[in-house]
Design brief:
2 copies of one chain form a homodimer. Chain A contains 10 helices and 13 strands. Chain A is of the alpha/beta class. In chain A, strand 5, helix 4 and strand 6 form a beta-alpha-beta unit. Chain A starts with 6 loop residues before the first strand and ends with a helix. The relative contact order of chain A is 0.13. At the A-B interface, helix 3 and helix 4 of A face helix 3 and helix 4 of B.
């Protein structure tokens, strides 16, 4: 960097999280390059950035190698919602593994710092609750979610080996359920489903009896944690995890506040009082995790961070986004 | 095939198991091509096959694509012993994932039947004992064994997706500890260590107190199971696993007879009475699985197979092989 503008690459930068990260980093004065194959990402998410001279968009699939000299690489590219990643499972596991490999190879050659976004899905259907970073998970290698879960697990192992073998500076987080503006309107996960269904006056679909709990993190909290983590000096990061006997820097980032799916449905209905939607129930899909909640002790300690935006605050902002989005159509 | 000679490809065919499989299949009159990068495989394992007109050796690394028209592909390529796979962990996970991907792509294009050798390591340090195929495992994504364990788990997921999405005919097994002639003399796992140490009059190293149990399968039993499984009609295989609510054909193949490491050490010493070796003890390495034993109910039912060669019968044959091997040097 040496006083020059910081150069940042974001894979998946036209997606829900990546596009907002790109906007933040641009606003801080850095140069941002976004790589996205636009499978689940969308040009409309970064439309306002396209005429910024410090912004570059490259349509590319990270299963193929890519090049460039960057100070920091955020690896966010991967369809994250079951209805998306199950549409082409082979592509999903390839993006996860090959995309990670290509990212790490580039970082190794150019000495870039890497931020990798793993997922709470590596814990699968957990036997430990809440999940600390040291929990190994309970994941099916052969089910319909495996392309995502096992792809992400193998990507973590790749990171661990590039750290151990080659000293690449990789910081990993496991993201728990996150919501907010710029979510894919057909994301297929519960918050966007409920909001879109309620706005369109359709009934809300609950699986099982709706008692399964989820933690919901507002996207701004996630972005805060990501940036704080990425800014830490390498030595501080290394020391922190070494002290905790963890071979690799990995932090849970999520909101530990628990809500049942039914509570979420009822809150959504109450925030859109004009809607005529009602609750309906369907059987639980295969391998659907029953319960997941992050232990964020380490993130608190290392980053001095914790989620600040409660569901009752974040949900109205998300509804507002979807309202304008649906109106535009 | 149509009455023509069957064409078989074996990746990793210059290794311990692959070389003996190649010899068997050649003896049955088929054409055999072996691909091996000779990292842990050895030309000496297939030296007697090289002048057979139905045999072809191709030195190649399966992380790079390969081509050819085969009826059957056995995917065996991967360093399987910790001291080998930890020498280059990034290469190990790449062989596992990319090798599987390249194998499946070739099978998809050419309609070849695939046999994939997964491993009991996908169960990690199991909480269920013995392990049935339905057990999801307990594996660390970030430890020193992860390159192998998670690479193999992701390879299973790839198989599952190529089966579901593209209808590729894949049969998977999870191999438990296997020993016998043609093992790598520096395999680093317990049976070869003990035999080589005893033959050379060195002391035998036990980890912990030596009470951890292992199951030991003689290689001929494994080869019998592999060939029986590969010969079954696709419909029979599909029906069997469908009836058991298993989305993918996967069988444990191992010997459920349990021996403690200490019993094995003592048996080895008693079979080489001229040796002056004694037992020594070291601390347990990180992530070392404490106990693993296959549930082979499904293999018995589907293949009418079970291991027939007991340790007291297989161990002398293996000692004989190592004796001649060490003498040659």
């Amino acid at each position: 960097m040496n006083g020059l503008t910081k150069k940042v690459l974001i894979t998946g930068g036209a997606g829900f999280i990546g596009s907002q990260l790109a906007r933040r980093i641009l606003n801080e004065g850095s140069e941002v390059t976004v790589i996205d194959n636009l499978f689940t990402g969308s040009k409309s998410n970064i439309y306002d950035l396209l005429d910024n001279p410090r912004f570059t968009f490259l349509m590319h699939d990270i299963t193929q190698p890519f090049w460039g000299q960057f100070d920091e690489i955020y690896n966010l590219a991967c369809p994250a919602s079951p209805i998306h990643y199950q549409r082409n499972p082979v592509e999903t596991i390839k993006v996860s593994f090959l995309g990670m490999m290509n990212t790490l190879e580039l970082a190794l050659k150019t000495k870039a710092r890497v931020f990798h976004t793993s997922t709470s899905e590596v814990y699968g259907d957990p036997h430990v609750h809440p999940q600390p970073e040291t929990y190994w998970g309970n994941v099916n290698t052969l089910g319909p979610r495996s392309c995502y879960d096992e792809g992400k697990r193998a990507a973590e192992s790749l990171c661990a080996d590039y750290i151990r073998e080659y000293g690449v500076d990789v910081r990993m987080i496991r993201i728990f359920n996150t919501y907010g503006p710029f979510m894919h309107p057909r994301d297929g996960r519960v918050i966007s489903n409920f909001i879109v269904q309620t706005l369109q006056g359709e009934n809300l679909t609950l699986y099982g009896d709706g008692s399964q709990s989820r933690s919901f993190q507002y996207v701004d909290d996630l972005l805060d944690a990501m940036q704080k983590y990425m800014e830490l000096p390498l030595k501080k990061v290394q020391q922190f995890f070494q002290d905790r006997n963890m071979p690799v820097p990995v932090l849970n980032v999520g909101n530990p506040g628990e809500f049942s799916i039914k509570e979420l449905a009822e809150m959504t209905l109450s925030l859109i009082p004009e809607s005529k939607s009602e609750l309906t129930f369907k059987p639980l899909p295969e391998d659907d995790p029953k319960r997941r909640r992050p232990d964020i002790t380490w993130a608190k300690e290392l980053l001095g961070w914790e989620p600040r935006i409660a569901l009752k605050e974040g949900l109205p902002k998300t509804i507002e986004y979807f309202r304008s989005f649906i109106k535009q159509k």
